[in-house]
Amino acid sequence: MRIDIQRKSFGGSDVLGRLRLDIRRGQRIAVLGPSGVGKSTLLRIIAGLDRDFPGSVGGDERLSVVFQEPTLLPWRRALDNITIPTGCDLALASDLLKRVGLQDQLDRFPRQMSLGQQRRLSLARAFAARPDILLMDEPFASLDPDTATRMIDLTGDLLDHSGAGLILVTHEAREPVRLAARPLLLRGDPATLHEDGQTI
Ligand SMILES: Nc1ncnc2c1ncn2[C@@H]1O[C@H](COP(=O)(O)OP(=O)(O)OP(=O)(O)O)[C@@H](O)[C@H]1O
């Protein structure tokens, strides 16, 4: 997909400047930057959730988004949380639940699961949509360090297995290293993308 943003402003002030980025299935990118620089704004634009900007986001890749807070259906059990929103078949849903270690939790409601389990369920659901590119907004924040590391490695395994690409938004430099993602720095006011100290 091709992302070409001329700028993005809120109330007349520019948060993002000119940003151009190409990403294909199988490629992994991490957007790093301090709080408030515009990382979530950029990801929402890439996800098609914000179209109020001059420029374009195009391509026929299938996208799937994982937010920091699990956005699960509270009145549906774990298995249904995978099959209903994505329309995937039971075989794929069961396989993914096994891969994320929730094979014993198929009948649980989200409120009966820990935060880490809910995050893994959200991850399984994201892959059940068979994305070409997975978009993740700080998905490992506010987990204890061991759980975060397990979740990062699980994400890497699922990306390897599915062949999906990744755009990860984070402020943790270790995450792109562990996920073998190309690190891009979002900085400046308005913010632009930088790689190895150069604007891209
Ligand atoms: N809907 C909105 N209306 C007005 N301003 C907004 C809106 N959404 C974001 N902003 C502003 O745009 C800037 C970038 O916000 P954004 O959430 O994209 O930053 P971020 O890099 O993701 O931060 P964090 O790491 O803290 O999540 C901030 O100054 C924020 O206040």
TrEMBL record:
UniProt keyword list: ATP-binding, Nucleotide-binding, Transport
Keyword Cytoplasm: no
One family name in Pfam for this protein: ABC_tran
Domain ABC transporter: 1-200
UniProt GO MF annotations: ATP binding
InterPro entries: AAA+_ATPase, ABC_transporter-like_ATP-bd, ABC_transporter-like_CS, ABC_transporter_ATP-bind, P-loop_NTPase
Family matches, as PANTHER family: ALIPHATIC SULFONATES IMPORT ATP-BINDING PROTEIN SSUB 2 (PTHR42788:SF19), TAURINE IMPORT ATP-BINDING PROTEIN-RELATED (PTHR42788)
Family to which the UniProt record says this protein belongs: Belongs to the ABC transporter superfamily.
Protein name, as recorded: ATP-binding cassette domain-containing protein
Source species of the chain: Paracoccus maritimus
